[in-house]
Write a structure and sequence with these properties.
The protein is of the alpha/beta class. It folds into three domains: 93 residues, Helicase, Ruva Protein, domain 3; 170 residues, 3-Layer(aba) Sandwich (Rossmann fold); 82 residues, Arc Repressor Mutant, subunit A, CATH 1.10.10. Helix 15 crosses helix 17. The strands form two sheets. The protein has a five-stranded parallel sheet, sandwiched between helices. A three-stranded antiparallel sheet has the order 6-8-7. The longest helix is centred in the C-terminal third of the chain and has 17 residues. It is 53% helix and 12% strand.
Length: 374
């Protein structure tokens, strides 16, 4: 088929191609009822003129954290005008001005001037609006680790959570969304004393849950009988082995595009095999981009090792490069395991039988290829 034919071909396998977009918010959101209830409980006091409960929304990539926040915010805004809910992607907005510009835009419908107006006036306008309209503010900061890299996190938390000290009656809360289990160790004491969050955990989807979600996406995104149950099971298996739902969603989208380019009415095994060549490292790269410099150093030591390392041997190698305490090393190792980049198995040896073997979950060359662009 010529390129013109591919671009202009009228028939499509996609009923709703947006169902395979990374930012798609499904109407039906299974396997996260308890987390949605926990988020609702945190917001409920604000609906009754109280202060919202702060929360840390914690989970590895592609576990539904962002979707849950956006859905609960939609539900709140449909039922009440007493709470202003603002979702902010901290990959895009990392400065104090950038964060409060997003809050300002949500309240007033436009962004503040970037020059000529001091930050204090923007901040005052936001808080005075909340006070005069008797509204509460809940700010969800997604990928909040980026605020720590820019060293703005503590000031932004302070500005939001201590607003009531300067503006009587203002009620504010923060939902911190992240995949970093070290979060609680980073905030300043004067911020920790007022943050005191409810911790809401989004555990990784298991194979059955991934299968249900992918089946629902197929139902929404493709016309009937575009992909067989057997091939969908293969995609589910691959997504489950990678530990990342996005792998399965990407495979469906890319396989569908390849089938269309072949003028095929169904997705065939060859389309999935071809899609695997292009999507295999995409989501690993997403995860690696979230790592700090020290975390990448530790992962690289594991990658370069010819043999499985004990945690003790790994610490010694890491300490020579970073000069780290064992507690910091252990937190980093736990994060790598939390992100499903490594596995640790207890050997039954060592002090109280707690010696661990550290095993890389991915091919070392694949890790190196994905880390090089970083």
């Amino acid at each position: 088929m010529d390129i013109d034919d591919i671009l202009l071909y009228d028939e499509t396998l996609f009923k709703n191609i947006e169902a395979f977009n990374p930012d798609y918010i499904p109407e039906h959101f299974p396997h996260r009822k308890s987390q949605m209830e926990a988020l609702a409980i945190c917001i409920r006091p604000a609906l009754r003129n109280g202060r919202p409960v702060n929360a840390v929304v914690l989970g590895s990539c592609a576990t539904g954290k962002t979707t849950a926040i956006k859905k609960i915010f939609e539900m709140v805004e449909k039922t009440s005008s007493k709470v202003i809910c603002v979702y902010i992607n901290c990959q895009l907005h990392t400065t104090r001005f950038g964060i409060f510009s997003q809050i300002y835009q949500k309240i007033f419908g436009h962004t503040p001037p970037e020059t000529g107006v001091p930050f204090s006036r923007i901040y005052q306008n936001i808080m005075q609006h909340l006070s005069s309209h008797d509204q509460s503010l809940v700010v969800a900061l997604d990928d909040i680790n980026n605020l720590f890299y820019s060293k703005n996190a503590n000031k932004i938390f302070y500005d939001i959570l201590r607003a009531h000290e300067a503006f009587e009656g203002v009620k504010t809360g923060v939902f911190a969304i992240l995949s970093d289990i070290e979060f609680r160790f980073i905030l300043d004491k004067n911020v920790n004393s007022i943050f005191i969050p409810q911790e809401i955990i989004f555990n990784p989807y298991n194979k059955e849950e991934m299968g249900n979600i992918l089946k629902e996406r197929v139902k929404i995104g493709f016309y009937n009988d575009v992909i067989s149950d057997d091939l969908l099971d293969e995609i589910t298996e691959y997504a489950s082995s990678s530990g990342d739902l996005r792998v399965g969603i990407d495979l469906l989208r890319i396989s569908g595009n390849l089938a269309e380019a072949d003028a095929s009415k169904t997705i065939e095994k060859k389309h999935i095999e071809e899609a695997l060549k292009s999507t295999g490292s995409i989501n690993l790269t997403y995860t690696l981009k979230s790592l700090s410099d020290d975390e990448r150093v530790l992962l690289d030591i594991i990658r370069q090792s010819d043999n499985d390392l004990t945690a003790g041997d790994l610490y010694n190698a890491f300490n020579k490069k970073i000069n780290s305490s064992y507690a910091s090393f252990n937190r980093i190792l736990n994060k790598l395991e939390f992100l499903r980049l490594v596995d640790t198995n207890f050997t039954g040896k060592g002090v109280k039988g707690n010696s661990r073997i550290v095993i890389l979950r991915f091919d070392p060359e694949e890790i190196q290829k994905c880390m090089n662009p970083l």
